[in-house]
Amino acid sequence: MRNLRMYSALAASFAAFVLMAVGPSSLAGQEKAKGKGKGPVGYQKPVKGTIPRTGDGQPDLNGVWMRPYTPDMTKGGANASPSTLNFTDWGKGKWDNYHAEDGDYAGACLPFGLVRSINAPHPMQVVQSKNFIAFLHEQNTWFTKVPTDGRPFPKDNEMDPTWFGTSRGHWEGDTLVIETKNFNGKTRLDTIGHPHSEKMSVRETWTLMNPTQVYYTIEINDPRTYKEPIKSERTFTRDPNGEVMEYSCEENNKSLLEGRIKVPDFAEWLK
Which residues of the chain have pLDDT under 50? Predict the structure, then answer.
């Protein structure tokens, strides 16, 4: 099992790097990854059934969840919209000037950020209590903690921008709703490099449909980068035998494609 996970991780990493290597600058004439398509053909929302609940009556999301790898936000999941990203002038400049072959911040083991982590292929464990839900990512052993006890967001001048943002969660019936803002703007949304700014806000929903499937939606609003929201819906699957394993990220790892993953010029990247 451990060897299988290792080989699967290697395969996923190789696939991700190939996508990075043929990033935006190499997609001219192919809609430049603007995202034609609405997700998997025949996708259907999971069937609602009897769901497990915690002691306080909420849907029980505890466990290890497998997610579809989504290297391109405009093609991943179902009902992805808009089908062609409508950039602002600032956003188009960020997109046109991004060249993965010049180096990706992930090559320096820096945090993926919230959205790119959700789009990654590695397992994620949910640890749920009455007042908090924690998301433990196998990728680089990152985690996020979401209060669900009704506390408000801090005032904007009381929050330091972060890689994963500041989140608050609440229940709307049997659906967990997570609102996140306060991003530092230094990550990308997906493997191929769709940009975002510090003005981004994210709304996620988790609806447990049956013991093993969650209907997940995400909506990204970033008025500095896009003229309209980016939306997608997907199915996550709970693995009753799954586990989140140790993950080691080493800067400038050797790659199968060109010798090593390049680290970007941070003086330029931080502008």
Answer: 1-42, 256-260, 266, 269-270
Closest CA to 90 of 228, 229, 226: 226
pLDDT of residue 82: 67
Tell me the pLDDT tens digit for each residue of 17-40.
333 333 333 222 222 333 333 334
Backbone φ and ψ for 139, nearest 5 degrees, come out as: -55, 110
pLDDT at position 120, please?
87
Ranges of each domain in the chain: 2-269
* Closest listed residue to residue 109, CA positions, set 140, 138, 137: 140
Identify whether the C-beta of residue 233 lies closer than 8 Å to the C-beta of residue 217.
yes
H helical segments located in 66-136: 89-96, 114-119
**Helix, strand, coil percent values for the chain (each to nearest 5):** 20, 25, 50
| Helix (H) / strand (E) containing 4 | helix 2-21
Burial of 38 (0-12, 13-18, 19+ CB in 10 A): middle
pTM: 0.77
Q: How many CB atoms lie within 10 A of CB 47?
A: 8
* 2-269 under CATH 2.40.128.20, yes or no: yes
The token pair at 2 is 């451990």
What HEC string does 249-264 produce? CCCCCCCCCCCCCCCC
